[in-house]
Amino acid sequence: RHVIDLDAVFDPAVAVSVDANGLSANGASLSDAVGNAATLDHAAASAASPYGVDTIAPTVSQIGLSDAQGMQAGLLNTGDTVTVTVGLSEATVVDTTAGAPSLMVDVGEDSVVATFAGLSAARTEAYFTLSIGAGQLDVDGISIAANALRLGDAQWTDMAGNPLTLSSAAVAPNATYLVDAIGPAAPTRPDLASADDTGVSNTDNISARTAGLSWSGVAEAKSQVIVFDDLNGDGEFDANEELTRVQASDVGAWAADVDLSEGAHAIHAIAIDEAGNLGVAASAAAEVLIDNTAP
Q1: Residue 254 and residue 99: Cα distance in Å, rounded?
Q2: How far, in Å, are 40, 43, 154 from residue 21 at the CA level?
Q3: pTM for this one?
Q4: What CA–CA distances, in Å, run from 20 to 23, 27, 289?
Q5: Of 291, 229, 231, whose CA–CA distance to 263 is shortest?
Q6: Tens of pLDDT along 79-93?
Q7: pLDDT, tens digit (0-9, with 9 covering 90-100), for 220-270
Q8: CA 50, CA 288: separation in Å to the nearest integer?
Q9: β-strand 213-218 against 242-247: which pairing, if any?
Q10: Cα(233)–Cα(247) distance, integer angstroms
């Protein structure tokens, strides 16, 4: 039997081969049971034999943010997902029987766990996904610190069984992946235009008009403003209460015309920012009475 020491690192592309007549007794005496001396001549063993050698551990070649779902106006908000691709030096296999690997991703001041989503068909890339949480903010772009891979209880090896080396380089903040998952502040109380305020004074919010009443206010700059009539009196926006929606200016000013039926109304405004976050609260109510019935 010819024993080969594999303690050294070999090129995995090179298979084991043996030269012709490569066997040496090294001063020993080789014979059969009745004393016939051994003949050491032999043919070469081709490298095409099924004894390839691979003792080189796979490594991480690169990490990058590769995809986002749900982004609006270049911003990610609550529930949007981001995919991170980890490039590998060779084909690998991940055994998740006991657990799964993960990747720590920096979203602003938060360190978020990206979960393992699988390998590419060639097994040379691994995919991780993360979901943006409410309240997260990153004005520079999502980043990844060095050595952010976590093996957990998974087994991650190359096809020869060599464990993956988890060390990796840092990924700088990527401005393509900005995060704003913070809802805008409540707008100011809607103000009824004095021309439409036909009561005893032009500030008492009593009007004889039902059509085209002009309202205005201030909300977050460039936000979408929903003007609504709080029918159930809970101070919160419900879809069936919407009267209209308009775009706030670069400084947050907005104006809208709405129709109201005769009776009392509680008019509020609530903002949706550019990232798609609904405001944390509605404005205070503008209590208005529509009375177009002659005495």
Answers
A1: 52
A2: 7, 6, 46
A3: 0.74
A4: 8, 19, 106
A5: 291
A6: 999 999 999 999 999
A7: 999 999 999 999 999 999 999 999 999 999 999 999 999 999 999 999 999
A8: 87
A9: unpaired
A10: 25
